[in-house]
Amino acid sequence: MSRATCLFDGCRSAVIAIDENNIVSLPEGVYSQFKLLENRAEPGVRSSNSNFLVVPDVWDFDNVGVSRDIPSSLLGDLGDKEFAFDYGDSSWKIKKCLKYLICADCDKGPIGLICQIQDQANDKEKVMHLLSLRSLQIVGEN
Ligand SMILES: [Zn+2]
After folding, report:
1. Which Pfam families match (predicted)?
2. Which one of 59, 66, 82, 115 is at 20 to 30 Å from 74 when CA atoms are compared?
3. How far is the CA of 49 from the centre of ligand 1 (A)?
4. CATH placement of domain 3-139
């Protein structure tokens, strides 16, 4: 199983073991909308670059920090922008982002989001961690 680690030299903290079954693809616009850290030059990054790891439980992380609330200037109104993805048996969309995920050791990031997401079939909502794999170094097998 590969692992995601902090990509900064001098840190490289383990963030999480990657469960491939929980990788989803989000629209590219998510990066600019939420000003997520990007690491385009990193050779280990997968070719499909808008991959996020869905993490239902914060305890699944080896280490992760949570920032204060996202400034409203960054949230704005999602308006017509739909950030939708398939996960499990459902199709979800991001309703609202609540907090940022950051590296627990060096505080760099954001490397992901804590979002309120909505099941498009029945409007049920839940809170989920979405970890940006492009914001991290991926090490290990594969
Ligand atoms: Zn770090």
Report:
1. Mss4
2. 59
3. 21
4. 2.170.150
